[in-house]
Design goal:
Elements: H1 4-13, E1 15-18, H2 24-39, E2 55-59, H3 64-70, H4 73-83, E3 97-101, E4 119-121, E5 124-127, E6 134-141, E7 152-154, H5 158-166, E8 174-175, H6 176-186, E9 193-195, E10 202-205, E11 211-212, E12 225-226, E13 229-231, H7 244-247
Antiparallel strand pairs: 1-10, 2-3, 4-5, 5-8, 6-10, 6-12, 6-13, 7-9, 7-11
Helix pairs in contact: 2-3, 5-6
Length: about 250
């Protein structure tokens, strides 16, 4: 369970880290399955000569190991605390994609500052100020991630900037490219931090936190990290009592 200090830090900075959220046996099983998936792309765990691209994306496996990873009680308790009980979809698994980043000096081509999209409208991805269908962004660390391992960059406090630029568009929201660009511009003066941690940690991010991939990867081992959303049944009502996520979203 998150402490009040951790919740306060989430409200202020837009993210909080759950240390050792995944049990060791679950973590090892997930790592093995990630490498099994990568083998289908010609990437071998013990052969760095096959690590040719700066990033290889795979879909998160829908297996028992990942079901266990995504349903840990410590995670579900934190989701309740940050989003509000009964508002989010209790998914059996992790979901989303796993962009595996390999040691490389090459630009991966996806390192721009942005926020996440949350809902689809007329075939396009959009985001609105009440964060329809997205409660959180979760970063599941399936490998150790240090400053040399192409960690995700975040701008602490930028979730407030994003909420401010989204509010004028109302419930209809904005197309994702426009919303991402506005949020990145509004938060450009904020210093960046690195989302680092140990394998088994899970970093919970506000849905409006401005973030970006980083490069080059100058470490020695591939970075394994899933980045699913925690889905909402609807959207945040923004009515008292406000959840920690909502505290930074009210116009």
């Amino acid at each position: 369970m998150l402490s009040q200090a951790e919740i306060d830090a989430f409200v202020a900075d837009g993210f909080v880290t759950l240390r050792a959220a995944l049990p060791a046996d679950v973590l090892r099983a997930c790592q093995d399955e990630i490498w099994t998936e990568l083998a289908g792309h010609g990437v071998e765990r013990d052969d760095p000569a096959t690590w040719r691209d700066p990033v290889v994306r795979i879909s998160c496996p829908e297996t028992d190991a990942f079901a266990a990873a995504g349903t840990q009680p410590v995670l579900w308790e934190a989701f309740d605390q940050l989003i509000g009980e009964g508002r989010w979809w209790r998914r059996r698994g992790v979901g989303g994609t796993i962009p595996v980043r390999f040691p490389s000096p090459d630009d991966p081509g996806d390192a721009g500052w942005h926020i996440e999209a949350s809902f689809e409208k007329n075939g396009d991805w959009c985001v609105n100020y009440r964060s329809r269908q997205r409660g959180l962004l979760a970063l599941y660390l399936f490998s150790d991630v240090d400053e040399d391992s192409a960690p995700t960059r975040v701008r602490p406090g930028s979730h407030r900037d994003a909420a401010r630029v989204l509010a004028p568009a109302g419930d209809a929201g904005l197309p994702f490219p426009q919303a991402a660009a506005l949020a990145a511009r509004a938060s450009a003066d904020r210093p960046a931090a690195l989302a680092t941690g140990r394998a088994g940690d899970v970093i919970l991010c506000h849905p409006f936190l401005v973030h970006a991939a980083s490069w080059p990867h100058t470490g020695r081992q591939p970075r394994l990290m899933a980045q699913p959303g925690v889905a909402l049944h609807d959207q945040f009502p923004l009515q008292p009592p406000l959840s920690p996520v909502e505290l930074a979203m009210s116009p």
